[in-house]
Structure formats: structure tokens, C-alpha cells
Amino acid sequence: MKFYKRIEKVQTFEKVGKYILYWMQGAFRVKYNHSFEYAKYLSNKHNIPLLVLIIVDFSYPEGNFRSFKFFLEGLKDVFEETISQQIGINIVVGSFQDVLKSYIDNAKIMITDKSYLPNLINIKNTIYSENKITIYQVDTNLVIPVNIVSQKKEYAAYTIRPKILKLLYEYRNDFEEIKYNGSFLKPKTEVDLNNIENELRKQNLVNVLPAPYIGGYKEAKKILDYFVSKKFKYYKDNRNNPEKESESNISPYLHFGNISPLEILDTLEIFDKSSENYYSFFEEMVIRRELAHNFTYYSNDLNNLENLLPAWAFKTFYEHKDDKREYVYSLEEFENSKTHDEIWNASQRELKKRGKIHNYMRMYWGKKIIEWSKNIEDAYDAMIYLNNKYALDGRDPNSYVGILWCFGLHDRAFKERKIFGKVRWMSQGSLIRKFGLNKYIRN
Ligand SMILES: Cc1cc2nc3c(=O)[nH]c(=O)nc-3n(C[C@H](O)[C@H](O)[C@H](O)COP(=O)(O)OP(=O)(O)OC[C@H]3O[C@@H](n4cnc5c(N)ncnc54)[C@H](O)[C@@H]3O)c2cc1C
Questions:
Q1: Which transformation does this protein catalyse, written as a reaction (predicted)?
Q2: Fold held by 142-178+217-299
Q3: What is the second-level CATH architecture of the domain 1-141?
């Protein structure tokens, strides 16, 4: 098994079972999925069939109409593709614990995807401890497994970069496809995947209107192909410019594990491996993204700013906590784009309509929420709430770390100023000078 280092044995309990169970929980795809391949391998080895299980928990924290629609669209691709490989798949509605119990009773071994957020890690640890079955976790959503690249929280991009680059060749090329020899267990889905909006209307979900992206592997490939053919050659020069639309828009697909970062690298490399555009994209999708996963993986909780921020950043905010704020807005005013700043309002409209904000504007969006909130705790809560409610790529390690970056995480100190202290500030004037933003404001 070429990717054996991605596989982690969580616990051993010898037991008989009718199948090998793959609980697909973070990598909702069939292609380039190490967990899936390992499950096939174990099924061949033990000569019992493989069953893929996906649990749809409509009460999942911060889930809403928009995010569930995107998620279920992705499941349609997984369902069809798994069946086309003559492998059994069940999509079941309920809570993780309840559904897993009955499936684990009949399983010999369970495989699942590794998680990177503390709340999910805790939920899974509880499930593991309550069930006497052999369990493996597989790190399939990162280029380098999170606990191999580093065993502690990294300080910044410059500390994790050399570690990633050292291991890159080995993990970049470790994927291996396994031919499945087992029998085909009858597939079933409790969610009508041909009628997703109807299904969602039956649930009592927070009503956030759908964003203009369709979930799933097939759409991820279309988005990627469009990026490669139309935008990639301008990526380095234009990625920061909100007027140019050069970003890939692949983040929602990475968030739901609809596509593997390894497949994205393969696609880009065929096109152009040595260009500055490739290195610029690599810096974002591998170095920054994996730095974010490193941070959340080694954080016990994501609520307390004093524990989350570097000491210098927390201290400097504390020293400036009583500085006069020129504007203070409520969460409702932020949510409804009711600030005095047309550019900021446009970024919030973009989040609500499009389900993501342009990367550069996302920094501005966050920095201004800090500037216009009563204190940093209110600002952090508002950002998490808005980002996780409206962004299709929300609730991700990148969400928390992107937001915390606005508070100084993984950044350096700057010249001291009001409210922000030594934390980097952003001004509207420099945004306008750089990009104009006339088109952006009209969105
Ligand atoms: C306040 C704030 C909130 C953010 N919230 C999220 C979020 O909820 N989800 C999310 O995925 N990203 C978030 N980011 C990081 C970044 O803005 C997005 O990853 C990026 O805009 C996604 O769009 P894209 O895929 O078109 O980007 P591209 O420029 O095409 O980048 C390709 C991929 O590289 C990774 N990437 C790009 N920029 C960053 C970055 N700064 N840090 C880490 N990884 C990066 C992402 O996986 C992205 O999909 C946030 C940043 C800030 C400042």
C-alpha cells in the first residue's frame, strides 16, 4: 500500500462482521480518495464486501438550506459513481451516533476520513470509544498528513513551508487505486437525490437562499477546468484584484472534499508546472491551506481568543480595548450591509449572494468588522457567524484561520495605531487606489 503512512489505526477489536464499513465523513468523492481505496483493500483482504455509509444529519451545527443543498448535490455524484464501481452505498438520515450503531453492529472494521476541527475530532473520539470495533482513520484531504508534517502548532507560513516541501515528493505521489473484488451490496438512499430542494423543504432548516454553485465532483472538475483554461495564466498577477475574477472558486469543493488537492495539483501540472502562477497557487492551496489545518488540528477549541491568538496580538488589542471607535455596528447591521462604507457593504452582499467573498475583500471585510465592533470578542463572534452562515466554504479550518489572521494570527507586528495596536490594519483608501472597485461596488 503506497499510502500506508496516511492510515492511522485508532483501535483494535477483533470481531466478525458481514462487511467492511467506510463511513465517508469528510471526503465526499470517489476519485483520489485514499480512505475509499483502503476500504477496498481491506474488503479484498478479508473477503467480505465493502459498504460505504454517508450519514445526513439535518441538525448538524450551523447547517442551513444553502449548505445542505450543496452537500446533497455532491452526494448525488458519490452515489452514482460508487454504484458504477459495483460497490454498495447507503445514504441514511439521522445523527452520527444513532446511525453508526446499527451499521457497526454488522461490520468487521470501520474506516473513516480524518478530521481537522476540534468539535468533529471530539465527536469522533466519543463515537470510537463507545464502539468496540477496529477503526482506521485516513488523512485524504491534505497533500501531507497533518500529524506527519508537524507535531505542533506552526508559527507561520515560513515555519511550515520547509516541512511541507521536504515531504512533498513522497506524498504527492502516494496515491494508489485498488481494484475491488467483493460483491455488490444493495445500495439505498433515504434522501431523494433527484429532488434535493423538495427534500430540504421538508426539513426545518435555516433559510439561506442557494448560492450560484452546484456541489459535487463533476462541478468541481468543470470549475477547475475553467480555471485552468481561462484564469490560471493570470493568477499570480490578478488573484488579489477583486475586479478581475482570477481566483479558482474551488474552495467550496475542497471544503466538502468533493475534489482532492492532489488531483488539482495534477491538473495544474499538466498545464504548466514551472510558471509563477503554479507557485503562487501552490502557496495558497498547499502552504496556507495546510497551515490552517495544522492550526485547528492542534487547537483544543476555537472560541477563546486569548488562547487562539499569539500573545503579542492579544496583548496589543487589550492595550487598545478602550480606544474610541468611530462607528460601532450591530450584528444585524453587518448582516444587512448597513454600514457607512459602500465597499464593505458590497463585500457582505457578495457573501450573501455568491456564498463566498473574493479573497482580498475577505481580508477587508474582516478587518473592518474588528474596527467597527465594540470589542474583539464581538467582532470574532460576528465574523464566525456570518462566514459560517453564508459561505459555502465556511466551517472549515480555513474559515477560522482566515478570520483569526485578521486578528494577527500567522502575521507579524506593524506600526502601532488605534484599536488595532500592532496588528495589521487595512484602509479603504488604499483599496480604492489599488483596484478602483467601481464594478465591485455595483454587485
Ligand atoms: C476573513 C477571512 C475568512 C476566510 N474564510 C474562509 C473560509 O470560510 N473558507 C475557505 O476556504 N477560506 C477562507 N478564507 C481564505 C481565502 O480567502 C479563501 O480560501 C479563498 O478566497 C477561496 O477562494 P478560491 O478557492 O477562489 O481561492 P484561490 O485563490 O483560487 O485559492 C485556491 C485555494 O487555496 C486555498 N487558499 C487561498 N487563499 C487562502 C488563504 N488565505 N488561507 C488558506 N487557504 C487559502 C483555498 O483552499 C483555495 O480554495 C478566509 C480568509 C479571510 C481573510
A1: cyclobutadipyrimidine (in DNA) = 2 pyrimidine residues (in DNA)
A2: 1.25.40
A3: 3-Layer(aba) Sandwich (3.40)
